[in-house]
């Protein structure tokens, strides 16, 4: 089945706007997370029951981990000033609870990808959205840590929009234009992480209007208003996808510059399409590597994805802690810092990255530059105590300089890795190569690639926070810099098949 440019652009537009709605719903809870955890801890502390609840078991696990690393030099049973818990108990409990989502994604992503290959992108997308809607509904009703934890589990297992969106874009774009199409995913992330937390914080400060009544549901979450907004965003997204998105998986798309193809003998997916001898060199499509080489390339890209997000997610997570500890930033100031990063990342995505990805080998260069930029950023953060000692007025400037470099990294690395991974997959899941090598089917291959990244996101913040609190911010950021340097300089990445 062919597709014209108008239909392709319409599909890309639907994918972008529905993904943006999905990510706004996902990010709305982020600024509320620490207060939600503190709320459940407070309720547990004042509960007359001594039954072994999920929260108490989780706290026991946190304290065993804290004892193992002797966090902050505190005794394991030392309470905080309010007589309840040490700051490590609350911080690590929040970190572990946040990691549950990414760990669920690590497990679920390959399965979601494989099912989308078998049953289609749209059915899996709608099914996953039903899971997200259930997750938001559980958050709305959660008055205990156990029910809130259940909402995170359901959300982590069912979240698939970003992953399936990458597969859909790969379905409807040629290899030559794919990375620029995938730029839309990075742009949606940048915009959502700029607006979503502010949206959640705005509605968290307001009670449910008296005009809104939810009969028969009993007690609601302390942040029922943002939970209800999240639920509404997901319902709108579901309606748009159900009504407007066509199925893309079975389609075979011709090059936009080619005429309608005539019947020809079927060729293996790894062979090069025939090109007239008189065609200019720039129009010839080189042969793709054999399946075994592309499978090896996918494994390398997935491991790189894991290593990068293991390091970068830790730096991102601790940035606001550093701003508060070193410069006394308020919540509003931290919000402005994160907003600056998000806006700048969106601008870079829509401008520089879009042009750079259109050049031969552009994705590999963008990954390299993005990792090197992250290396410089964490080096600045590691130097912040020295900067504050000798030039106190330059501390804020240094923090924003590191934030600007983080924005560039956010705009380049993950989206480029996704583009490189998609170029290793089979362009048509119905080919004989896909049957012989199921690991090259788009959904499964991209699901595995995303899975490794999510594992890095789950582990990285906990490891970096441990170094941050156990030793110092400088030790944490120097460790990240030492790990990022070889990742940017010495670890090789496969070239895209289109440029071989």
Task: Tag the structure with descriptive keywords.
500 residues, mainly alpha, 17 helices, 0% strand
Overview of the structural elements:
This protein has 500 residues and is an all-alpha fold. 70% of the residues lie in helices and 0% in strands. The chain has 17 helices and no strands. Helix 4 runs parallel beside helix 6. The longest helix is centred in the middle third of the chain and has 37 residues, at 291-327. The protein is globular, with a radius of gyration of 24 Å.
Succession of helices and strands: HHHHHHHHHHHHHHHHH
Q: If helices are DSSP runs of H or I spanning 4 or more residues, what is the number of helices?
A: 17
Q: How would the global form be characterised? A: globular
The main pleated sheet reads as: none
Give the mean pLDDT. 80
What's the count of strands? 0
Secondary-structure class = mainly alpha
Which strand-content bin applies to the residues?
under 5%
Oligomer: single chain
- The CA-CA distance between the termini, in Å, is 28 Å
Assign a percent range to the helix content.
over 70%
Indicate the low-confidence ranges by residue numbers. 75-84, 251-285, 429-435
Radius of gyration: 24 Å
Layout: helices, strands, pairs:
Blueprint: H1 5-27, H2 33-45, H3 54-69, H4 87-119, H5 121-141, H6 145-158, H7 161-172, H8 178-204, H9 224-244, H10 291-327, H11 331-356, H12 362-382, H13 384-390, H14 395-424, H15 432-436, H16 442-470, H17 473-489
Helix pairs in contact: 1-7, 1-8, 1-9, 2-4, 3-4, 4-5, 4-6, 4-16, 5-6, 5-7, 5-9, 7-8, 7-16, 8-9, 8-11, 8-14, 10-12, 10-14, 10-16, 10-17, 11-14, 12-14, 12-17, 16-17
